[in-house]
Amino acid sequence: MTNPTGHSLPANSTPESLDGDYGFTLMELRKLMELRAADGLTQINVHYGGVQNICSRLKTSPVEGLSGNPADLEKRKLKFGQNFIPPKKPKTFLELVWEALQDVTLIILEIAAIVSLVLSFYRPPGGNNEVCGEASSSPEDENEAEAGWIEGAAILFSVIIVVLVTAFNDWSKEKQFRGLQSRIEQEQKFSIIRNGQLIQLPVAEIVVGDIAQIKYGDLLPADGILIQGNDLKIDESSLTGESDHVKKSLDKDPMLLSGTHVMEGSGRMVVTAVGINSQTGIIFTLLGASEEDEEEKKKKAKTQDGVALEIQPLNSQEGTDNEEKEKKMAKMPKKEKSVLQGKLTRLAVQIGKAGLIMSAITVVILILYFVIDNFVIQGRPWLPECTPVYIQYFVKFFIIGVTVLVVAVPEGLPLAVTISLAYSVKKMMKDNNLVRHLDACETMGNATAICSDKTGTLTMNRMTVVQAYIGGTQYRQIPSPEVLAPRVLDLIVNGISINSAYTSKILPPEKEGGLPRQVGNKTECALLGFVTDLKHDYQAVRNEVPEEKLYKVYTFNSVRKSMSTIIRKPSGGFRMFSKGASEIILRKCNRILDKKGEALPFKNKDRDDMVRTVIEPMACEGLRTICIAYRDFDDVEPSWDNENEILTELTCIAVVGIEDPVRPEVPEAIAKCKRAGITVRMVTGDNVNTARAIATKCGILTAADDFLCLEGKEFNRLIRNEKGEVEQEKLDKIWPKLRVLARSSPTDKHTLVKGIIDSTVGEQRQVVAVTGDGTNDGPALKKADVGFAMGIAGTDVAKEASDIILTDDNFTSIVKAVMWGRNVYDSISKFLQFQLTVNVVAVIVAFTGACITQDSPLKAVQMLWVNLIMDTFASLALATEPPTESLLKRRPYGRNKPLISRTMMKNILGHAVYQLAVIFFLVFAGEKFFDIDSGRKAPLHSPPSQHYTIVFNTFVLMQLFNEINSRKIHGERNVFSGIYRNLIFCSVVLGTFISQVLIVEFGGKPFSCTKLSLSQWLWCLLIGIGELLWGQIISAIPTQSLKFLKEAGHGTTKEEITKDAEGLDEIDHAEMELRRGQILWFRGLNRIQTQIEVINTFQTGASFKGVLKRQNMGQHLDVKLVPSSSYAAVAPVKSSPTTSVAAAAVSSPTMGNQSGQSIP
Question: Membrane-spanning residues where (predicted)?
Fold first, then answer.
């Protein structure tokens, strides 16, 4: 048969001869995959002569797959591309440096330093300095006056250091994130047939022409055409936005697209497009984005363009779709962003405001004091030649003011959060938690409820058949095959071997004497193991009836809770084997086999007896019961689509009890959760007796409790009204006591999670973690505050929807995640306690010092050094404390507990009092105490004094010892406990101390320091160590007695959220806080932008409506109108970090434009 393209295949050609070219060009395949449903089918059958012919053109065999010859694979990669989408280039180090330079305080400092530099080189012509006030006390020391530039240069130098450190941190964070991404990508494997063997291949290795085996729960890694399918349904919403599942079959719609999810069924496809040539790849290329970008966009939709961009390449009526989407979005529940980030940003903004006010007052007072002292009291005239000298003074005052601001603004906070999270994420990998979203780690510390699956999470997911009921007899152990009638045995063996996914297998153990390995669905593996125990070989049966011979398959799904396979009988007619949950299948049976294999009638009364005497006792022992049945269709072929008609009048063959033992470490882990104030609920598809038995073994239920165990039906009856809608009040009556939800569907799970999260019963909003492994758990995982997907048993869909992947599927790993989450929270609090003490003291010292002595006792460069060690190094030291078991002995903090507790406030103020007392004593009486020259009221360019060096040194040493105090925030006495376990902490403290010695001894003029004697050093050290003793005194004062202490750093209250966040998909507290002041700003900008666009649009002659529509849409997308195009090109607005908030405020549809009418 000749190909339409003209070259005929030589008669002797194997499917894979390396000489000839492939019968397709890359573009032909791309064009083919762009067609949908019927169009695609016509093109395949008419133009290419069917799927088989496409396979032969691609030189592959539909049954055997590719041979896996490396030369051939390489050639395919060259011709059709590789299956990976190149990630967006990471930001270069220089770009990150540029971003770090955008910090407002740093910019102010740079300007001030440059002005100071320029002025220091300026020498007023002639003009006696005395006339202009005291510029330098010792004119004879010309060198000192020359050295005026040093301070400016030193400030610039410190700014550079701060910028480099920030950029480096961002860079390593980005690198870590990419490493994590590539790990997730490498771990994604797919079932491919090569050389007749089914192998698990990393997704990037798939080439065009590969035969892929697809099954329920897969995320398709490439585009392809269906070769064989059973009951296949695909969720294409990620590409088309259509939520309905699309049925795929050879005769209706064989086109399978990458990035879509298999929701039901199984099948095989031939891969026709990979990487950037697949449908998803094409869209990514269009968006100029790639996987990485997409991840980023999901995580921080706000930084891109305020609202995540839904990709909708297949809809041309963009406008109407978006409007409908908006209506839907308005009704969607709001998901709040990280609690911690919100609290921190709020706090930082408040501190920043306070710092700004303080620094402004400082500058004003300094200038006024100088002006009044010089021109009013001493009555000097303003001489033109003295102007530069005065300006130098003003610049010095300005620099002092900016320095106060720099110290007041805790820019170390975001750094501490990042370091702490990144460190935790790295360490959590060792504890089998693969964190996909950074903030999930910290949210987990606040968790108050965990809804866990039973199978595989609480149990070992190693199923074995331990009891059976066959032919009217209940066997407590597996019967020997001789006991059973040959016909019954034959039906059991065939009914299990044929009616289970052919991907489920039992393989020999990896180690000698180990257990056989179970691959695929574990329940099916248990049944296959049962066949093996009956001394039969299931593989032999499957070889006789290969998958191609199966006439029809109704695959298992959560609605059916059963699976049926239909085969043709050799004698004519059909036979259907069914298996499923026993109570469901038994309802559909009207006959049952007896001992001899004869079918006896099976009435309702018999069924009730059987449930009572066989199924319930098995379930109460924690066994899962499965019923195996069959039905023959001998006369006419029924209509297979009418499932309810087909699945009736079955004949029951046997009921088996499958045991799945509880993991030995689970009861202890659940006890820990209870101690930590976390409620564990079990949500399972098993029947209520099995679930109750397992829950009791795990310790979720104990004998004395009056907790609820409900079945899904009962649960729905209790929470829904007559119309079938869920009522929150009804749900609130149930969930606090509910511990086990059995026979539940994924919707029930979602309803429960949503109900608990939306509930207002307790004083705190509940923070819910959910585990899931199936495709249908996606919605619940997304809705939960933290979604855990199973790394081993989980489907791709579940992993996509999750925040954390449990690489060992074990419940104890969740408890570890809680521990790490709480540790992050505590690390941040430790850092805050330390940071705020420094800030309070430094700001007050600089402020009062400047007002009383005309000069800050701590110079700008010294402040920057303090800021650097306190911010960067301390955040490193305190954010990397390893977690301890004691974290699990307290209740969760909850969403609105303030960051700074009263105990912490006591510590902050207590230490501040000590430090201020010491510093003021040293500033105003230090020279008498140490018997040295006073450093107060020094003229403009005077050399550094020993007096102020001692002040600076003491200040830094006090901070250093206070850093050790800050390791404990709950009022513990022993601040040294476990300090040797944290090497980073020890090295940071030592390193800071050594640097301080070097600065004081050799820092000289740039640091305004001069050498100190040994006795002076010892005094400074002694005062520093006094911090530790003072810390003991403070912790002896009971917090309860200090009623006047207030907490700080509260979360956002519910009312504020709802008021500010209408129409937002995710609520980002941080952003809201920043927004309030900027809305007006941006509204102005927005109007100008719209006006410019209107003008441009008129010039290009495109329709005017589009522009107005864009504005009404609330800037979800920046729609640029292109003349003569059928739809608007969508350009995501890229923005630098400084404008990200701007973009967010502009794009938030509700800001100042609630009703959505266009702004004039």
Answer: 356-377, 397-423, 831-852, 904-925, 945-962, 983-1004, 1016-1037
